[in-house]
Amino acid sequence: LGVRRPLPLLIFLPGLDGSGLLIWSQLEELSPFYDVRCLAMPPTDRSTYEQLAAIIAAEVAEERAARGNLSGMPVTVGGESFSGPLALLVGATYPDAADYLVVINSGSAFRRHPLLFYGSPPGPGGRGPP
After folding, report:
1. Kind of pairing, strands 75-80 and 35-38?
2. DSSP 71
3. How many whole angstroms from its chain centre is CA 129?
4. Sequence-separated contacts (24+) of 71-74 with Cβ below 8 Å
5. CA distances from 128 to 99, 106, 119 (A)
6. pTM over 0.85
7. What is the pLDDT along the chain (130 residues), one digit of tens a residue?
């Protein structure tokens, strides 16, 4: 996973594009406070959220073991956009994998934005939120 720094670990889960490129603009501000890692998912990956959550939990466990005396540092899992629900699933299914969860611009909040339903509404019968 790269060079380990004596800082809390931030595992960033990218949005819909799966590349993690969107975090680059924030790395300068985050890197003094976190050892930042990003999950990159190739476009051909068709893993389910459950499979990805298991992979993330295993990576965190491996990273904690590899950190030795740094293993007590907190781990934050941050899910951006469509990975917001993935971060929540990691926390719900593997509660020991993360000390903190951060959900950023999450698709899980889609129903709370009624203006989004004026385009191509996903609600039943195209009427917006049920």
Report:
1. unpaired
2. T
3. 26
4. 73/6, 73/7, 73/8, 73/9, 74/8, 74/9, 74/99, 74/100
5. 36, 18, 9
6. no
7. 456 677 888 888 887 766 666 676 777 888 888 888 888 877 788 888 899 899 999 988 888 888 776 667 888 998 888 788 888 999 999 998 889 988 887 555 555 555 444 444 444 444 444 4
